[in-house]
Amino acid sequence: MIHRFVRLTVVTLILVSAPAAAQRVNQMPKASTAPFSVVEASIPELQAALAAKRVTSRQLVEQYLVRIAMYDHQLRATITVNPRALADADILDRERAQGRLRGPLHGIPIALKDNIHTIGLRTTGGALAFADLVPPYDATLTKNLRDAGAIIIAKTQLSELANWVASDMPGNYSAVGGHGLNPYDTRPDPRVGVDDGRGVLSTGGSSSGTGTAASFWPGDVGTDTGGSVLNPANATMIVGIRPTTGRLSRYGVIPITADQDTPGPMARSVTDVAIMLGGMEGAAPDPNDPATTVCTPPPGREYTKFLNAQALKGARIGIPRAFFYDTITAGTSKSPRGGLSATQQSVMREVIGVLKAQGAIIVDPANVPSVMATNGEDNFTDFPFCQTADHARGRDAKCSTVFTYGMKRDFNVWLASLGDRAPLASLTALREWNLAHQRMGAIRYGQTRLDLSDEMDLRLDREHYEADRRKDIRLAITQGLDVALEGQRLDALLFPGISGSDMAARAGYPSIAVPYALIAATTPANQPFPAHFEPKPRPFGVQILAGKCAEPKIIALAYAFEQATKKRVPPPGYP
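Given the sequence above, the corresponding structure tokens read:
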């Protein structure tokens, strides 16, 4: 029902505006007769077309709306389309005609994950309890984007409440939006037990990269607590930046935990995410988010000046071989952990060859000590975050309570910020609402993670949580990434696929995902696909990670790698 409404709304917006749009087209200076298409168009290409009067912002929005209307029933990439998108485009067109440009995103449509506040547009978090929530204030990053000239075109599908509802809930599913699908294979999973509508190919996390991959918009904003910018970027063959935690304000974003939450830009190129990052960042710290004092923005919040195709020359790039590339037996495990498949190993050998050819100094191995530690207390892989019923309060000594505790603390603060717009008063009230509305599909996969969070006592469990947070920092930073980066004097570490995303999130360090290959999908030995079913190739990229506030460095390195390879392949079937 939701997506049928979205498509009808999009078509209505276009049809109603068609006569006025035609009149505007006739009045435009005929600087070029060549038609402009938004398909695969970069933000600089959109900017150039607008400057050359080949197209207006309204016409860009119209093209994107048509694509949403044509293809979103296949992907379910949107939850809500902004009914004011065309009117917002008209305002920005008038300002351009008057010689006023707000910033680097003037007239450029951008989508937001549906846990980011937008005045006048509902913010559901994918939860039925918030299906009609229209927040009373913009998220700080929403305001920053609008100040930079962006048009908020839509709110994207997400894993409900950023995947903090149930441990058995599939990624990119929400009660409001259903199952979001991957444009590289939109078929449902045919295997018994998981044939519930989820896609055969994962979308990678709680943020949606599908609409960006299919050119529904040039870029979108995700949020990352444990990998939900890096992972979906990798899964949909786009670029995503997980910034240093605190570089971008989280005010007005439905939280999991302030210890690890951050928004992040997602687009089809390094150039585009660099432009978006500058548009999302504030010129000064946000008084509503104390963590925003952690990094100083570059002058003018201009990240494109770091786009250097020669940046790999002389750069010291570390290969965290143990666990992330090769299997290792360590910690409490008696059997090998981690490692890559033969196909993935071959891809990464090729990637390392590219880096060497571009002049990088490869330090191999540059291992992360905390994944090699033989003592379980010092081993990163022996300390997952608490998330299942086995991790209930009192049985959570061997997992991190940072998510469970942080959600109870920060979610209730967020609800209070809504004032009289808040549909519910607390996390407890949300759980009760979900139980009362089970027959409506509120919690199709249960609410284990919400239960774990709500049973936390913010006073009595504080010491336990703080100890866990210290341990996360010790294993991720002081006995982890910092040893590898500083001990080998590295500019960055190179991780395969999404393998470093959890460590990056716990450390709060910046990391960027860059597309590289399409590889054969592996068939799970314990649950193979039916004999007649052939999985399609899936995206597999790389992750470049550096220390706190090192976004300029990872952008430079990622851009040089991207320009040397240019391996991104658009998803088929979305011309």
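The CA atoms of residues 8 and 69 lie 8 Å apart. Try to locate this feature in the token string yourself.
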